[in-house]
Amino acid sequence: MVSRLVLGCGSVGRTLVSELADRPGTVLVCCADEHRIETLRSDRVTARLADPTDPETLAAVERSIDIVVVADDDPATNRAAAELAREHHPDAFVLAYAGEEPAVETRLQIESIADRLVDREATVAGDLVERIGEASMRPRRLRRVLRSIDGPLAVVTHDNPDPDAIASALALCKVARTVGREAEICYFGEITHQENRALINVLDVELRELEPGDIDEYDGIALVDHSRPGVNDQLPEDTPVDVLIDHHPPRAPVEARFVDLRSDVGATSTLLVEYLRQLGIEIDETVATALLYGIRVDTDDFRREASTVDFDAAAYLLPFTDESVLERIATPSMSAETLETMARAITNREVRGSVLVSHIEELHERDALAQSADQLLDIEGVRTTLVYGIIDGTVYCSGRTRGATLDIGETLRDAFDRIGSGGGHADMAGAQIPLGLLGENEEAALSEIVHDLIVERFFTAIDSRPDARSVGPFADEGGDADDEGSPRD
Question: Which contacts of 229-234 are long-range, i.e. CB under 8 A and separated by 24 or more positions?
Answer without folding.
Answer: 231/421, 232/158, 232/159, 232/421, 232/430, 232/432, 232/486, 232/489, 233/156, 233/157, 233/158, 233/159, 233/187, 233/188, 234/159, 234/188, 234/189, 234/210
